[in-house]
Write a structure and sequence with these properties.
2 copies of one chain form a homodimer. By secondary structure, chain A is α/β, with parallel strands linked by helices. Chain A is built from 8 helices and 13 strands. In chain A, strand 7, helix 6 and strand 8 form a beta-alpha-beta unit.
């Protein structure tokens, strides 16, 4: 029985990886991943073999991992953040039927929601919903429905893939939908380059967020009705009483 | 300026802590936390001073951290999982106004949602909502509303605090609500003692989940309409096409 480890490397900085993830990468023969993520870990494991495939070649990347494992190599497939949150872990299990002699094991990591929350303050202290604005694999109508119902339920909402060159107006559309149920003065936060060089954050209102341009390296947080700005940080109360 | 580090230690096993969290604990003078979590890290940092407060004494615990920092000590306050997900990070920012000379810094960790997902397979690959069933600090009506709307939106749902001795019927009530919008055959998962001795998981249907008794060390996952059981693992597809 071979084992492929699907490893979440965290938001980017080596230190934000778990001890387990670092041990698994250190024990393996070959590290497979999307070019950008491989570049983030390469310097820390210089003696390893690295195999990369470009974006949108996810199926090829997963098959490559199974093929390398079938050769008897110890394989780690890396994802940024957590491999189980919009990551490769799902596709690896979906494809695993064709390789019954290989076991898939997921090593969890810090996802952008919690990594970004730590930079902003404490926006995710209460119930929250995580929604990707990318409509590459999900119909936009389904995304709209989730934005509306999550807003009506007064969830804190964290948005992944909030924008790109091709989808420059998606965040504005999402904010307009959320304002059907959330106040324009709702406290919101943006974090870009979490745990990497150039990390930046901003705390603004939902009305301001609707007019903000973001790139694919940004994670967006929309507060619930209780979320506050405390000394420039975004904080959602859990409900503890104190005077 | 003093700094208090609010550190997520992950699900429990030392290896599931980030490298950064371990460094911060190793660099501090005093580690403060709820008794159970302090016991999880004590053996790895035997030379540190440890201060504990019992459950439901969260405000006291946070004030203790500020008081210790004011004495000039380097303070780490620990939480299980991620300190920013139902953790102490929020309350620390809320109380920080009274200690303007102290900065609060959050060190993210692996929360039970992603830690448990890795054990089950890949249930959180698509949009999901995280809901706590504890009504200690949140009115039950608000929890009900969130369960209903999140189900209507076809989110994968992850439940924290799904039950205890006092709240033994809450999970059943929650499942009945979710079945207003989700099929009784929806694939669900349970993980208990994530990353600790006695870790166990189960993949069952939503109808079966409604009849299951759980304790406070269990995290519960309810799939979306696409979630599958593949070789006994719970897997939510992202939507990649393959033949």
């Amino acid at each position: 029985m071979n084992t492929i480890f699907v490893v979440g490397i965290g938001p980017g900085a080596y230190e934000k990886m778990t001890i387990e993830a670092a041990r698994v990468l250190s024990d393996c023969d070959v590290i497979i991943g999307y070019t950008v993520y491989v570049d983030l870990v390469r310097e820390h494991f210089p003696e390893k073999e690295f195999l990369t495939t470009p974006m949108r070649k996810e199926v090829d990347r997963c098959r490559l991992a199974f093929e390398e494992a079938a050769k008897g190599k110890r394989v780690a497939m890396i994802c940024s953040g957590d491999a189980g949150v919009y990551g490769m872990a799902g596709l690896m299990f979906e494809l695993s039927d064709a390789w019954p002699e290989t076991e898939v094991k997921v090593i969890p990591g810090v996802t952008a929601a919690t990594g970004g929350a730590a930079v902003l303050g404490a926006p995710l202290i209460h119930d929250f919903a995580l929604i990707s604005l990318s409509d590459l694999l999900t119909p936009w109508e389904k995304i709209e429905k989730r934005l509306l119902l999550a807003s009506e339920a007064d969830f804190v909402i964290c948005l992944y893939n909030p924008g790109s060159h091709k989808r420059s107006d998606y965040l504005e559309k999402a904010c307009t939908l959320m304002m059907q149920h959330k106040s324009p003065s709702t406290v919101c936060g943006l974090v870009s380059q979490i745990g990497r060089e150039g990390e930046e954050y901003q705390v603004i209102t939902l009305a301001e967020l609707a007019k903000t341009k973001v790139d694919m390296f940004t994670t967006v947080f929309i507060g619930n009705s209780q979320t506050k700005c405390i000394n420039g940080r975004m904080v959602t109360p859990r409900g503890y009483r104190y005077e």
